Amino acid sequence: MAPDNPLLRDRDVAFLLYEVLDAPGLTRLPYFADHGRETFDLFLGNVARFARELAYPAYRPMDESPPRFEGGRVHVHPRVKELYPRLSALGLQNATRPYAIGGQQLPYCVHALASAYVAAANAALGGYVLLAAGAGRLLETFGSDELKERYMRPLYEGRWAGTMALTEPHAGSSLADVRTRATPMPDGSYRISGAKIFISGGDQDVTENIVHMTLARIDGAPAGIKGVSLFVVPKRRIEGNELVDNDITVAGVIHKIGWRGLPSLALSYGDRGDCHGWLVGEPNRGIPHMFQMMNEARLGIGVAGVATASVAYHEALAYACSRPQGRPLGQKDPATPQVPIVEHADVRRMLLRQKAIVEGALCLVARTALLADLAEHEIDAAAKERARLLLDLLTPVAKTFPAERGFEANVLALQIHGGYGYSSEYLPEAWLRDQKLNSIHEGTTGIQSLDLLGRKVVAGGGAALRMLGEEVRASAERARRRGVPADLVDAVLGALATCESLTMHLAGKGLGGDVEGMLLHSADYLELFSIVVVAWQHLDMAAAALGADPPTDAFHAGKRLAAAYWIRTEVPRVASIAELCRSGEDSYARIRPEEL
Amino acid sequence: MAPDNPLLRDRDVAFLLYEVLDAPGLTRLPYFADHGRETFDLFLGNVARFARELAYPAYRPMDESPPRFEGGRVHVHPRVKELYPRLSALGLQNATRPYAIGGQQLPYCVHALASAYVAAANAALGGYVLLAAGAGRLLETFGSDELKERYMRPLYEGRWAGTMALTEPHAGSSLADVRTRATPMPDGSYRISGAKIFISGGDQDVTENIVHMTLARIDGAPAGIKGVSLFVVPKRRIEGNELVDNDITVAGVIHKIGWRGLPSLALSYGDRGDCHGWLVGEPNRGIPHMFQMMNEARLGIGVAGVATASVAYHEALAYACSRPQGRPLGQKDPATPQVPIVEHADVRRMLLRQKAIVEGALCLVARTALLADLAEHEIDAAAKERARLLLDLLTPVAKTFPAERGFEANVLALQIHGGYGYSSEYLPEAWLRDQKLNSIHEGTTGIQSLDLLGRKVVAGGGAALRMLGEEVRASAERARRRGVPADLVDAVLGALATCESLTMHLAGKGLGGDVEGMLLHSADYLELFSIVVVAWQHLDMAAAALGADPPTDAFHAGKRLAAAYWIRTEVPRVASIAELCRSGEDSYARIRPEEL
Fold it and tell me: Could you tell me which of B126, B150, B149 has the C-alpha nearest to residue B234?
C-alpha cells in the first residue's frame, strides 16, 4: 500500500474543471453566483485532505473486519463512527443543495470530483454519504414540509443515515413485482410489512437513526409498476420527543466481497405489525419518483467506479516505477542491473490503458455532472432542456463505462503487481472486489444497455442523439484548430457517424415493430456508444492539453498520448461492433436453454 | 452451490475425444496399444466421480480455511490429507507415464480432460497433483537412476509432494537473475543457500516429504540464464533409512486470494548451512531443462483455467434456469408470472458467451494435449516433428486463452447471479479469485505473448505457422463438406489469412532489425491469434456436430450455435486488431513514466 497514493491527482481534477470543462462558467447562473475557482478549490482541497489522511488509512481495516451481526444488531468497523460525522462536516451530503436547507449551492461537477477522492480512498465509507444524500434528495423533492423537517434535515446534517429499500428477495431487479404492503391508517400513516434484500446500510451502529426510503404497495393498488408507492420508513420513529423502535428487523447479512465497511442486509418490516411508514409524493408514483432521482444515483456509481480504478492505477504506476525486474529487449548482459518494470513496453501498455480508461471516465462523469447542474439551474429554458436530454442520454454510459472498463483497469493493476497482486498483502485485489459491485447495483449493465438503446437514444425522436452529435462535432472542430492530429479527429467523427447511422437503423427496426431485433445487441451497442463517448472526452482533453503552456509539459503530453492510445486502439473497434449489431447474428436469441 | 453441478459435462468430454479429435486413433501407436475407448472411459469415470463426490464438496471448506503458519510449519485444511492419497490412487500423478515406472501409458489428452474434472471441483487440490507430476517428470527426464529411485518414485506414487522453486524475491519472472547458490561438496552433492518466493506447496502437513525442484547457481557459474542449474532439494533428505531435516525453512506465507487450499510460501534454504541438494541433468542447463517440461506445465494451467470457467458456467446456467425475475420484452402484464432469467436475451448472451469460451478452450487444451502425445510417442519421425512444432506453437495460446477469456467467463457467471453473485454465500466469486492466478503463474500473459510472437510463430522459418494453416484449412474443408454455413467457414479462413500475412509483416520487421517494433503489439497479436485458433476449434466442433445423428439433437445444435456465436462476434475483430498491430501506433512505446 503506497502511503503516497494520490487517489486522484489534484492536477487532473483542476485540468478537467478549469482547462477542459470550464466549471467556473457556471457562476454566470444565479444559483452558483457566489462561487468561483477559489470556493471550488477550497471544497476540493478539504475533501481531498480528508480522503488522504483519514478515509484511505481506514480502508484496509474496514475491508479486513466486515460487519458483524450480533444481538439483532449490525456492528460496523468503529472507524465509520469516527469518520461519518467528519464527512458531514465537509458537507458531502448536501453541498449542492440550496442555502435555504443548509446546503452550499456548489456545482455537482465539483461535488462529484470531490466525492471521487472519498470513493477512491474508501468506497464503502463513500457509500454512506451516497445513500444519505439520495434519501435526503427524495424527501427534498417529493416530501411534505413535515417529512422534510423530520427526516431530510437530519439526513443532510449527517446525524442520521439513509437507505434505498427497493429490492425484494423474489424479484431482484424487477420492481414491478414489489410485494411489500402498506396499509393506510386513520392518522394518514401506513403500516408496512414485507421483506427487502441487499439493503446497503440497512442497519449499523453509527447513527442514532436510519431512514429507509422504501417501495411498497398500498392495499388495493394496481399490480405492476403503476401500483408501487414510495414511503419513508425510519428504523426508529419519532414519538413526541423520543425515537422508538419501528419494528424493522435484520433478517440476514449478505457477505459482500467488497465495500465491506458498508453492510448489505435482508430486512423484515412489521413482524410485530408495528412498522409505521409515511407516503412520499403521490400514491402509485413510487417508481417514477425514484427514477427522477436515478440520474444522480447512477452517476454516483460512475464516480465510485472511476475512483476505484484510479486508486489502483496510481498504485500500479508507483509499483511499476519502483520494482526492478528483467532487462530491456536486446539487453542480454546479465551483469547490467535490472530495470524497473515500467521500462517494459507491455507494462507501459497496461499502464497507458488504465490511464486512458481512468481519465476518460473521470472526464465523462465530470461532464455528466455538469450537465446535471445545467439541467437543474440553467435559466435559459432551451439550454436547460438540452442539458436534461444530454444528461439522460449520458447517464447509462457514465454509470456503466467506469464499472465495466474500470474493472478491466483494476484487473490490469493487479496483473502489473504479478504474484504480489494475487495476495491480500497488496491492495489491488481489494479494489478489484470493490469495483465488481458497480456493474450490479443501481441497475445492472444489462439494464443500462436496454435503457440506453430502448429509451434514451430514441427519446424525443432522437433529439438527444442529435445534440450529442453537435457537441462531439464542435469538440472535433476545436481539436482540429488546436492542432490535434487529423487522423484522431477524423477517426472520432467517423465513429460518431457510424454510431448515428446504426442507431437510425436499429430505431427503424423498433418502429417497424421488431423491438426484440432492435434490442438484440443492446450490450454491444452500449459498448460501441461508450467507446465513442469516451473518445470525445479524450479529444477534448487532447485539445485542452495542446492549448496549454508550456506545450512540452509532461502532464499535457500524457493527455495527448492517452487520447492517441484510446482513439487508435478502441475507436477502430466501432466499425466491427456496428457490423455485428446490424448483422442480425441471433445465435443467443435463438438458443434454447437445453442447448446451452 | 448447485449440488448437481457437473463441473464438466461427460458428454462434452466424450464429444471431444470421440467425435472431434479421434483420441482412439492414438492406439495405433505402440505406446498406447493396450488402450481404447473402454480404458479411457474407465479412467475418466473414476476421476469424474472422485471430483464430484469428494473434491467438490471439499472446495468451500478449503477456500474458507486457508493455510495456517504455526510453530514453523504450515498446516493446510485436513481434507487435503484425506484426498491427496486418493488422487494418487487414481493415478493422476503418472497415468501418462510408462508402465516400467508405474504409469498406465494413457494418452495425455485423456489425462488432461480427467484433470479438468479435478481442477473444476477444486483447483487447489488439483495443484498438488500438477506439482508432484511436474517435479516427477523433471526427474524422470533428467535425473540419474539413483535420483529417480529416491525422489521420482515417491512423487509418482503420491507418497510425497513436489514444488517448482524458481522465483526469487528480487527478480520475479526474470530467471536470469536467480541468486540461490549451490556449493559443490566432495561427495558430489551441493550445499544450497538462498531465498525463494511464491512456492506453491512449499510446505504442508500432508506428505512426509516435499521435493523442491530448485533453480540455483553453482559457485563460479556464469552470470545470467546460462549459469543456472536444476537441483533436487528435498525438505527432508534421506540418510540411511531415515528422513532428516534438510534446513529449508518457511520465511513467510503469501495470503493468496484464491487456490486457498494450496499454500504459497517464501522459503529460505540453508540458514544453518546444512541444506543438501543434488544436481539434476547438466550443470548450467537448468533453464533449458525446466523449459523442456514447460509445455506440459503451461498446458496444465490451461486445463485449470478452462475448468474454473466451466464449473462457473454450469452454476450460472443452473441459476439462470431456476431464478424467476421479470418478464419478456413486450409482456407488460404484471399478473403474468415472472419468467426464469434465462428467458432474457441478454442473460442468454452472457451464457452463450461463456459456453463459447469454455467449450472452445476445452477443445483447444484437449487438442494441444493430443499433440503432446504425438510429440512424445509418434513413430513416424516427420509426423512427430510436426506435432512438436504445433505443440510449441499452441502452448502459449492454450495457457493464456483459458486464463484471460476464462476470467471473462467467470465474470459473466458472477454477473448472472446479480447481487447474490457479489456475496461469498455463492461460489462464482471464489472461482473468479481462483481464475485470476492463471494469467500470472507459469509465465504471465505478457510473457506468453512475447513467447508466441518472438519465438514460436517465427521458429523454423515459420514452419509451425504454415502447419497450423494447413490444419485449419483442412478443418475448414471438412466443415464445408459437412454443411457448416459458408459464411462461418469463409470468416475463419479470412481471419487465418489475415493472421498469416500480419505475422509475415511483423517477422519482416524483426528480421530487418526492428525487434521492438515487431513485438510492440505482442499482447494484441496473442489476442488475435487466440481468436483464430479458437475459431478453428469451433469449426471442428460444428462439423462434428453436423456429422452426428440425430442432427436435431439439442446437444449438437448447441455446438453449432456456439460456433456461430464465436465466429460472428469474435472473428470480425481480427481485422481491426491486425490493423492496429500494423499501424505503428506507438503511444505506449513512446510514453515516458512521468507522462503516465
Answer: B150
